[in-house]
Amino acid sequence: MTLIVQDNQGDPFQTFIFSGLGANADFARQGIISLDGETIQSITLISDFKELKQIEFSFAPGVPDGGVTVMLLGAALGMLGIARRYI
Prior knowledge:
The radius of gyration is 24 Å and the shape is elongated. Helix content is 22%, strand content 20%. The model has no long low-confidence stretch (mean pLDDT 80). By secondary structure, the protein is an alpha+beta fold. The protein has a domain at 1-49. A 3-stranded antiparallel beta sheet has the order 2-1-3, with no helix packed on it. β1 and β2 form a beta hairpin. It has one helix at 68-86, and strands at 2-7, 14-17, 40-46.
């Protein structure tokens, strides 16, 4: 089986070859992880298999909030309390 991955930055495509897959063989999960923030434009899968199941694309986990959101919420609630006292 041959897997060809092209990113959207115009870099040369990357080819991954999985050999030793006999008839009716299953293979483990395959993952492609970017090290420098590039994103995938296209994936080409070349093989003579019978069926393809369970394709999943997932995004990288988000960056955790550093507490700024909680500080802004606290400031907004404090201002509401002050405004309520004078109105």
